[in-house]
Specification:
The chain is of the alpha/beta class. It has 7 helices and 7 strands.
Length: 201
């Protein structure tokens, strides 16, 4: 059975517009792909520690000793072995919440999610063929004059290259805090996009 890993970085929980959109996508996906097991990793429950010096020192010591089976690497192995990955994270401060950055630092482990070949070139070791970021934004950051300010989706797309994940996709509802926009219409369009995407993801 193949596995879809859902990484939930929606800090506002069930009040989150991003999480509502993600749940809509996952519901449609599970109906279309009953053979796929969906596993959720809730970063609000995990409460991973940032890479403080003592945390990093312990990780480096374990890695140097070849103890990649230590539980501290479980999240990295889970990510590396997933067949599909969906990350739900709201657009905060032109990027995403800090809990997602902590998670990404913890799963970026040499010889698990990426590595190096004999010539010293970086190679991705993750199994997933696709990674989808689901997000919502208060403003519009897809316009030519504002796209340069967006750093969350671009960072994840770059990490996909490092992890060896060839296909990065973005499902985004934006302009939700602009009083000139019809929020419900924007979200309705995003839900339709989610249903269409669920068929080919």
């Amino acid at each position: 059975m193949s596995e879809l890993l859902f990484v939930n970085a929606c800090v506002r929980g069930e009040r989150s517009r991003t999480l509502a959109l993600a749940r809509h996508f996952l519901s449609a996906y599970e109906k279309r792909h009953p053979e796929v097991r969906v596993t959720e990793r809730n970063l609000m429950e995990d409460r991973m520690e940032p890479q403080y010096p003592e945390v990093l020192n312990r990780r480096d010591a374990l890695w140097s000793a070849g103890k990649l089976d230590d539980p501290s690497f479980d999240a990295a192995w889970q990510f590396a072995k997933a067949d599909r990955i969906v990350i739900a994270a709201p657009f905060w401060d032109l990027s995403y919440p800090a809990i997602l950055k902590i998670y990404l630092e913890r799963i970026s482990v040499c010889d698990i999610t990426f590595g190096y070949d004999a010539d010293g070139n970086s190679v991705g070791l993750s199994r997933a063929e696709k990674l989808l970021l689901i997000t919502t934004r208060g403003g519009n950051f897809s316009l030519p004059e504002t796209a340069w300010m967006e750093s969350g989706a671009r960072h994840l797309k770059a990490l996909c290259a490092m992890y060896g994940i060839p296909d990065f996709e973005l499902l985004c509802a934006e302009g939700l805090d602009d009083v000139r926009n019809d929020k419900e219409a924007i979200l309705a369009r995003a839900r339709c996009e989610a249903e269409a995407l669920s068929a080919r993801f």
